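note to self — DONT lose this again. spent like an hour looking for the file last time. sequence + predicted structure for the chain T wanted, 240 res
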Amino acid sequence: MGQTRYEQVSAYLYSRIAAGDYPVGEKIPTENELASLLGVSRPTVRQALDGLARAGYLVRIKGKGTFVTQPKVMHESTTFLTGYREESRKNHRILRTRVLALETERASERVAQALALEPGERVTRLTRLRWLEDYHNGAPVVYTTVYVPYKLFPDMVQIDFTDTSFYSVLSARNLEVKHAVRNLEVALPERQVAAGLGISPFEPVIFIASQGWTAAMAAVEYTESYYPAGSSSFRIEIHR
């Protein structure tokens, strides 16, 4: 079965965007111009433009026109237990990481509660900034900090997490996360987080707080992650 006219128009526009004929930020031809160029009706063009806008390739600004935009990064960490490195590999993305901090400290009340520790118990804190090659000129996609009980993983500070998967390291030490709870909300970032992400402190982020437990229900990790709201989307699957 051949493509419908709508699918043909969508495929044509997508191919022009992918080839760089319509680069990010450029205004594309009007609905009337595209309809004339492609020999289709204006409603067909409008349907194709709306579909590409929903997919994140176009943004339509009333009174100004339709512009090519960088698609949002689709994050799937809300659907299964995996590390961001594995998620990136699954989606054929090249992940880069900068370790901003790796040190032991006394747990704050918030962190101690999340990890079922006494306030002041020792934890190891790992803070990383992560970005994807060939996406938004290297703009960071997430600023994340994970806390781990020191007593469970005392040599964690000796590991270079620049190119090492945190979840793989936990699994190798029989600390694999088997159950997690993740809370998601829209927030304004703290100044150091905004600076790391290269955004304004007044630009919203998606904040996800995650608690992870082993199969024996031992609290092994508490993570706080910040994703720029303007360039991030999340997939959530629900099964009955």
